[in-house]
Design goal:
By secondary structure, the protein is of the alpha+beta class. The chain has a single domain, classed as Haem-degrading domain (Beta-Lactamase, 2-Layer Sandwich). The chain contains three helices and four strands; from the N terminus they run αββαββα. It has a four-stranded antiparallel beta sheet. A hairpin with a 4-residue loop joins strand 1 and strand 2. The longest helix is centred in the C-terminal third of the chain and has 21 residues.
Length: 143
């Protein structure tokens, strides 16, 4: 069984996320990473912010590396909480705000999606479109 995300599957997730970004009229950068957080596919929509290239990649990396959605790290990384300063670790690659989600199959993280280019709520919305496509592919047995 494939333990990571093949390029063809990554392209499907990017396409689903891009469709949602177009619906909300917000250009985004969409990244899909493998289970180690390494790049599988990345797409920058026309007029998406340049800074979002690295931010989306780091959101995918964070989700894969820590097996968690990035928005779930926000509160714990605030001053006085148990993960305070987390975003300053791992050569600055850890992102502690929303837009990154791990992709799971049979309870294992096999990749991640990261989206950047809008408000955090928009990034999450667009990433969730890719996540929903992933879950459909897993249910169908084609992921």
């Amino acid at each position: 069984m494939v333990t990571s995300i093949p390029l063809d599957t990554a392209k499907e997730l990017v396409e689903a996320a891009e469709e949602r970004a177009e619906e909300i009229e917000n250009p985004m950068v969409i990244t899909v990473a493998n289970d180690e957080g390494n790049l599988v596919a990345q797409h920058r929509m026309d007029d998406a912010w340049l800074a979002s290239v690295s931010i989306s990649r780091n959101k995918a990396y964070t989700s894969a590396a820590l097996d968690t959605p990035t928005h779930e790290l926000a509160e714990a990384s605030q001053p006085g909480n148990s993960l305070y300063g987390l975003q300053t670790t791992d050569e600055g690659r850890i992102v502690v705000f929303g837009g990154g989600y791990p992709l799971q199959r049979d309870g294992d993280v096999v990749g991640a999606i990261g989206v950047s280019g809008g408000a955090v709520e928009q990034d999450r919305d667009v990433a969730e479109a890719g996540l929903e496509r992933w879950e459909t592919l897993v249910e169908e047995g084609s992921a």
